[in-house]
Amino acid sequence: MTDLEWRFDDRPVAYPDALVRMEARVAEIRAGTAPEMVWLLEHPPLYTAGTSARAQDLLDPGRLPVYRSGRGGQYTYHGPGQRVAYVMLDLKNRGCDVRGFVRDLEDWLIATLARFNVTGERRAGRVGIWVDRGGPNDMDRREDKIAAIGVRIRRWVSYHGVALNVEPDLSHFDGIVPCGIREAGVTSLVDLGLPVAMEDVDMALRSAFEEVFGAAVEGRSESETPPHYIANQP
Questions:
Q1: Which of 37, 58, 179, 212 is catalytic?
Q2: Of the candidates 19, 129, 149, 160, which lies 20 to 30 Å from 108 by C-alpha distance?
Q3: What H or E segment, with its residue span, contains residue 163?
Q4: 179 has catalytic annotation
């Protein structure tokens, strides 16, 4: 199947339920009985631990529920006001290139932020998308993370995905070391002074997705899995 289905949930979805539904859809995509899907949703407040999560990075163990996740990466927070996008794509039809897929996810988030005049950036050795806060001569200058990426690939079908901070309770990030990075902060669109509605974010995500993933990807070669991402290809 070559069609892609978009699904939008306007109420928080319990994390265990989301995992079950993702697993089922991934199996259907592999079997060719369902199209690829991008699922946009929110979760109740919780922490997830990726396959590289370290115990010492859970700073406040009793603060929120913690779920072990098969995705790559370390600890992250999910909650209302954060748009999670679970991306279930058949990479056999998209070049079988894990690095290229992760790069496309980064480009997707950067293009989405650009629609709100926010400059999202990559950082060497770091996962996710970052924004600079302040000018080059500003003593208070810092960089904050605005979007996280954590994926898993099984038999060339992707799942899990990205999380963009729109208007979450940023104080919940204090209970963890987000993605294991202690020297940087976390921000959101609203924290940057942009009162953006979730519906506007959904529209931006969809149009940017079609911009980044809509083009043909012939010619990509297979490459090894980048750090922080998990691929199972038996």
A1: 179
A2: 19
A3: strand 157-165
A4: yes
